[in-house]
Design a protein that fits this description.
The complex is a heterodimer of chains A (226) and B (129).
Chain A: E1 2-10, H1 13-29, E2 32-38, H2 44-55, E3 61-67, H3 72-79, E4 83-88, H4 97-105, E5 114-118, E6 135-141, H5 148-151, H6 153-157, E7 161-165, H7 177-187, E8 192-195, H8 204-225
Parallel strand pairs in A: 2-5, 2-6, 3-4, 3-5, 6-7, 7-8
Chain B: H1 3-20, E1 25-34, H2 41-51, E2 61-67, E3 70-73, E4 79-81, E5 97-101, E6 105-113, H3 115-128
Parallel strand pairs in B: 1-2
Antiparallel strand pairs in B: 1-6, 3-4, 3-5
The chains are: A alpha/beta (226), B alpha+beta (129).
Chain lengths: 226, 129
């Protein structure tokens, strides 16, 4: 005789618990953290290079770079003016909450205002693992094609911000911005969207302003709570 | 590649709940996987066999029920499954739709043998051989 036991629990529970610990750690230190996800080559590191110097004018910026084998991305982030820590995943295709917990332990969190976590370039796996960051940011790029929301719906579901990079290439590729936006909205209507080019700098300012406001809102909330 | 941590997540939940129920052995595990989870059944099955060895869930049969990605039209309220490359409503042609199902992976239930059952089954097996 067997007996049925109801469970009804999401299988990401173990990761989610550590993500919650990461969030608490970040909140205690007053750091707003962004999880930057994208396919390889969409422009995560370029966006960091464009964004960090602007933020660094009046904020203290940290970057956690997730890369399979090299520390190149962390070096680029450090050159841009951030305190950078590299997580080499040793082949893992995504960051998870325990990896980010280890990275947080290596950073002077109390001396930071904003932390950008650069996930591994991949549209599939990173979407399944919460890190404890405050906002999930997806970097899409024009040459990838307007069919990405239809082919990779999962990653569009859980993100708060969509950055569409390489808009300077719109005249040269078949990318239907309307079709792309329709697909995205079907999956996620709450999303804030920024169209920009990291190469020309076009459209970068509204995105930088969004990050600043996010950090400002957090600081105001913290003052209100204390 | 993220099927391994997903399988580990399933096993952790199974071991936790079987232990809490005082079970001797887990015979079946019922998992519900939304299409958006991107979970590949074959991979999960492969990892399951390896990582469940020498646990209370060793040899347990894994049943994965897939929930397809479905949308609901904001305009006319129709519910529909998606076509590749198109999320617009097939009834009224509206592009304003929302996801109605297809998220998440969860363990719904496990079937377990109680301690007494397992002993009996063990005896039966011993008698059969």
């Amino acid at each position: 005789m067997t007996r049925k036991i109801p469970v009804v629990e999401e299988i990401t529970k173990a990761n989610d618990e550590i993500a919650a610990i990461n969030r608490t750690r970040l909140d205690e230190a007053g750091v707003v953290a962004l999880n930057l996800m994208a396919s390889p080559g969409a422009g995560k590191t370029s966006l960091i290079e464009r964004t960090v110097p602007r933020l660094a004018e009046n904020l203290r910026v940290g970057v956690v770079g997730g890369d399979i084998a090299t520390t190149l991305d962390a070096e680029r982030a450090a050159d841009a003016g951030a305190i950078a820590v590299q997580i080499t995943t040793g082949g893992a295709c995504h960051l998870d909450a325990p990896m980010v917990r280890n990275a947080l332990a290596q950073l002077p969190l109390e001396e930071l205002d904003v932390l950008v976590v650069e996930n591994v370039g991949n549209l599939i796996c990173p979407a399944s693992f919460a890190l404890g960051t405050h906002a999930n940011v997806l970097v899409a790029s024009v040459p990838e094609g307007d069919d990405k929301p239809f082919k990779h719906p999962r990653i569009y579901r859980g993100v708060d911000v969509l950055v569409i990079n390489k808009i300077d290439l719109l005249p040269y590729v078949d990318f239907d911005m309307r079709r792309f936006h329709e697909g995205v909205r079907a999956l996620n209507e709450e999303l804030a969207t920024f169209e920009l080019s990291c190469r020309t700098g076009d459209g970068v300012e509204p995105w930088v302003e969004w990050v600043r406001q996010r950090v400002g809102a957090c600081a105001t909330a913290a003052r209100g709570a204390s | 590649m993220h099927e391994l941590p997903i399988t580990q997540g399933i096993l952790d939940l199974v071991v936790e709940h079987a232990g809490r129920a005082g079970a001797a052995r887990v015979t079946d595990v019922h998992v519900v996987a939304g299409e958006l989870s991107g979970v590949v059944d074959e991979c999960i099955g492969f990892y399951w066999e390896i990582i469940s060895r020498e646990t209370i869930a060793a040899g347990a049969c894994l049943h994965i029920r897939r929930v397809p990605l479905a949308f609901e039209c904001r305009g006319c309220g129709a519910r529909f499954a998606h076509e590749d490359g198109d999320f617009t409503c097939p009834t009224c042609g509206d592009a304003s739709v929302r996801v109605a199902s297809g998220d998440g992976v969860r363990v719904e239930a496990i079937d377990v043998e109680e301690v007494a059952d397992a002993v009996t089954t063990g005896q039966n097996r011993a008698e059969e051989t």
